[in-house]
Amino acid sequence: MTALTDMADLSIEDGIAIITIDNPPVNALSQGVRQGIKDGVAQCLADDSVNAIVLICAGRTFIAGADITEFGGPPKEPGLHPTLADMENSSKPIIAAIHGTALGGGLETALVCNYRVCDAGARFGLPEVNLGLLPGAGGTQRLPRMVGPEKALQMVTSGAQIGADEALREGLVDEIVANDLRAGAIAFARKVLTEKRPLTKIRDREDKLIAARENPELFDKVRKSIARKTRGFLAPEYNIRCIEAAVNLPFEEGVKEERKLFMELMTGSQSAAQQYFFFAERQAAKIPDVPADTPEIPINKVGVIGAGTMGGGISMNMANVGIPVIMVETQQEALDHGLGVIRKNYENTASKGRISAQDVKDRCGLISGSLDLSELADCDLIIEAVFENMELKREIFKKLDEIAKPGAILASNTSALNINEIAAVTSRPEAVIGLHFFSPANVMKLLEIVRGDKSGKDVIKTCMAFAKRIKKTAVLVGVCPGFVGNRILAKRQAQANQLILEGALPHEVDKVLFEFGLPMGPFQMSDLAGLDIGWNKETSKGETIRDVLCEADRRGQKTGTGFYDYDKNRVPSPSPVVEKLILEFSEKTGHQRREISEDEILERCLYPMINEGAKILDEGIAIRASDVDVTWVYGYGWPVYRGGPMHYGDSLGLDKVVATLRKYHEMTGNADFEPAPLMVRLAEEGRGFKDL
Ligand SMILES: NC(=O)c1ccc[n+]([C@@H]2O[C@H](COP(=O)([O-])OP(=O)(O)OC[C@H]3O[C@@H](n4cnc5c(N)ncnc54)[C@H](O)[C@@H]3O)[C@@H](O)[C@H]2O)c1
User: Which is the catalytic residue, given 88, 128, 448, 612?
Assistant: First the structure.
């Protein structure tokens, strides 16, 4: 065996050369890998004793993609394209031997080989779309030639992977090797030689493209089917255009089109934001003062207090991954209702074919109910999700302190209350922590973990790991009203409320934020949550528009009216009644209504969010700016192609954000526009949050 580079080596066994890539952890296509393949192929072609070449990887996977740490840096020779061209032009057959995952550039490498064999566990995919990109090394041109345009469209627009069996059925691989992949691949190579099989190149194949040429509406059908999910994203559309090019243009032209569209995405802001977010998400798991060897508390049983909106959703998370959970209520009726909603949710999912009837049974079987708090005595983790009321929560934690076993974690799902005050009523504040789930708790990916002053490091470590186990992305934050997510949200809502007093209407504000890429604007969101959260009929004095609407029994979607009118399918339409109420309220409160531009709506809603994020960072409530962004992307649907509010601030330039905030501060006198000292300092130094 000879080393080709420090990431690849070559051995020759009886006329078959084996190039082995070894670049842990995932054999990414780093410079040393490309060089190794290129040199290896060249040596094999020059060596008369070599008749065929097997490309295989050491470790746990085949090449799982590009080395994204090289993105944005100076190009390192050899590039992937010339490397793949050398492979495709090889006069000796090359066989890819695939295990683990052949993803992105890895699959593209396999696609320039003449044959592909894999083991039974191998998986294949082109996930570039998830980074705002497309497969730029011929993948969009070769894949449809192998699996047909329809399957290729599905794969490139979703980034989803297919398994070995499907790959064999679709023609993506030639053989599944039962045991030893290396030996199987060598045997396959010998078969190719003995049978004198042709040196087929995928690029020359046309058979699977012909039907699609007759069926051009195929592409628009796909566009329509993904429109809602991919609103605002460029990459899915560009991926579709590439497959269209593969179908309609000669191979070389298609490759050119792919290259052009790839470069556009690669140099654009969306992919930059999505790549940034890819790292942001991984970074969020790192807690500087919690060492890796901190012990974890085993979680085998979970208790949830309150079977309402949140308690039910939270319990489903546990059942989904096989953890038994017991929900406690004070009234049988509330408990039955809560359990009923969970069952209905699961049945709905099953009716869409996303889980089986057996899953429904198993998951419901894992969720039990009780009216007796003392039944939580054997739980390792107890999550309180009762009404948002400090007195009630303190009372419950006092009882839990007496009931829970030593070492159990006592968590609150409070949206905004002070975790330290809750912890203070117990004799074990180190066991207390905030686990802030987002609604619907069984769907939203974010878990804001709120660290109290005394929360133990083992408790923090356990909760971070537990989040992963229940398939959430956790962000660790400190105690302040609303924590990171809702504290920032409050600033946006304050401006939205102000804008409708000054001249805008709810649907105008919502439209601007929807078009920015958020799933809905602030008024639709308020209607969805219910306008009467925290509102009290007895004490309401019509002091805000919200009060006025609640007093008129317009309490949001659940009552059929709120800021909007809703039809029976809950589709909103602007309400003339609300418009009249707003105009009257504006007048009563002395506002001179004026035309408000879309730019003003956007800036006044979003820039105070960036500003509040800066204050949060300065106070140490969030560990890093990217954690704020993860919170907003996964908790509130901030479009990932804009990175998150802090990344967005950086992309605008903090000097511009500061100047604009100052302009509105002067105009309104509102303190939320006073630029945070941290942001002013960064702007003056020409830096961004990313440089902190
Ligand atoms: N709804 C949201 O969007 C959301 C999001 C994140 C966090 N939260 C927080 O989650 C908590 C619960 O909110 P929700 O929307 O699920 O409220 P909810 O009104 O839907 O549910 C609360 C449940 O708690 C029960 N309950 C009240 N006192 C109890 C007691 N002493 N023992 C046992 N059960 C009791 C009630 O019967 C009710 O079923 C609140 O702290 C809220 O701020 C809510």
Answer: 128
